[in-house]
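Duplicate of #3305? Posting structure anyway:
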């Protein structure tokens, strides 16, 4: 029986992307920290993409990188929506005065 070892390529970047993604999801729901949620989401997308690329080239598991990538996309979308809604509300309040 052959003993095939799987590579761990991209796992460190995927774990870092997962941590930043969770923090950016939390930050995207806090009104004053929406921008940091967006910034964290973009960083998460970059880290997860690089980790996914490394994992695919070395034939390593890609599930953690995919989860991190989706988490970064969700964090960025939530932050953008909340920033747009907040900006729209501020514009309405300024016009109302």
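Output from current build:
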């Amino acid at each position: 029986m052959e003993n095939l070892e799987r590579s761990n390529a991209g796992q460190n970047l995927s774990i870092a992307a997962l941590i930043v993604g969770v923090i950016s999801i939390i930050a995207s729901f806090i009104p004053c920290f929406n921008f940091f949620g967006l910034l964290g989401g973009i960083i998460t997308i970059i880290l997860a993409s690089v980790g996914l690329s490394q994992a695919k080239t070395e034939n390593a598991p890609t599930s953690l990188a995919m989860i991190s990538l989706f988490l970064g996309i969700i964090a960025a979308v939530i932050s953008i929506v909340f920033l747009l809604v907040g900006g729209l509300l501020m514009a309405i309040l300024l016009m109302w005065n």
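Confirmed duplicate; merging threads. The radius of gyration is 18 Å. The mean pLDDT is 90.
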